[in-house]
């Protein structure tokens, strides 16, 4: 495997933190507003209606106020009500329970898909019209998911999983565009898989700044398996009464599907030229690895079964990606371990540890994918490959001595931390310093050359937040057209596994030094 397999999306060189506190502090959960494609009911422990979304009349033909303080049992199918009670008996706190609920309010029975959220002080019921169980058969779904899974299993790399995942979700849902979006360490993200209609703009390979999906929005993916906005063109619906009488606060809508959307994001969707959007998390080892983002030019509201199937697909995709990443790590570890074993043997059989590191079947440069290396030991500097001039290495060693501890120090943008090194960026934009004796200025130094990288942003990230002159109103950027940034003074980043290999090497060399000395 080449190193690039693991590093091409590691956010090389993007030093600027685009994770905006400003966007991150927009409250999403205490907004007291819902989207109108469903209704929200807040019930007390006796299942009386204590708060209701004002659009009740649109869905049930009776003004919202009339429902307040009434028992839910008064309006719904009796058998279903009994079933609901039984389900509530078995519930776990925080669990969402989906089922069908029929209301008889306007002379006829109207079927809703209901989702119950249990909170300590109350129950939330979200109701959406049109439980359309006839539209798909279970067999149809099962076949489609089975087909998608078998295609995913045949893939060879993270990139091909992303491509197949986008294709399969698009085929399954008919969204106009489906994107697989991977976060980097700084929460910027890159589109690594795409399937789209021809007239949709091409986002493949584009990077988007962290502020586009701020922290609190990212965290909600741990509470809700998807975020669905069937249309951005809607009038938000208020809850009646405004304050939840059971808590004397606004009702927390964190994990409600119907939660109304932050204005800035609705504008963002308009700027992207889409009307509907749905996103699902890719969670690996309890971390948000990425999202599956689906766009549609016109309004679109996948039904409950479709959403459930998408949830299932997204977890299958997550586990395929997790397995592939794990495989990549193991294969890199194996390569490093085998080089390491050879190097250790060489080290022990050589006259001096420097000889052992520099000469033989393998060497330090190969082990850590360096473009140059130096050893500062016993008052002398020895080098291999392309390195800064000896005098400069000496100065670098003094800097390290003043600033570093006994721990391994590594950076893939040395010139940002130590501006004097700009002169030799071609040899050492990346540095790994393995201390042997920091006080004496004894180090093994690994260098990586500058790797100029072009980052393709979806719109200028420095213009991601547009503040109006009043300093209060703000907008998202209005162009997602390619904006290229050339990142200078950086090398290919160091992988965790390489740093671990450097640590093992440090111990081995220390052992060798002790034996050389005594
Ligand atoms: C929400 N931003 C989101 C969401 C996505 C994105 C996926 C979740 C809601 C959804 O699924 O539509 C961003 N969508 C993307 C990106 C791609 C994509 C990057 O398809 C790339 C392919 N947004 C801004 C600015 C702010 C901001 C400047 O551009 C803040 C000032 C905030 N984005 C913002 C907020 C939400 C959001 C607050 C949450 C909206 C909500 O859930 O109500």
TrEMBL record:
Keywords: ATP-binding, Chromophore, Kinase, Nucleotide-binding, Phosphoprotein, Photoreceptor protein, Receptor, Sensory transduction, Transferase, Two-component regulatory system. Residues 157-315 form the Phytochrome chromophore attachment site domain. SMART domains: GAF, PAS. It comes from the Bacteria. InterPro entries: GAF (IPR003018), GAF-like_dom_sf (IPR029016), PAS (IPR000014), PAS-like_dom_sf (IPR035965), PAS_2 (IPR013654), Phyto_chromo_attachment (IPR016132), Phytochrome (IPR001294), Phytochrome_cen-reg (IPR013515). Pfam families: GAF, PAS_2, PHY. This is GAF domain-containing protein. It comes from Pontibacter aquaedesilientis.
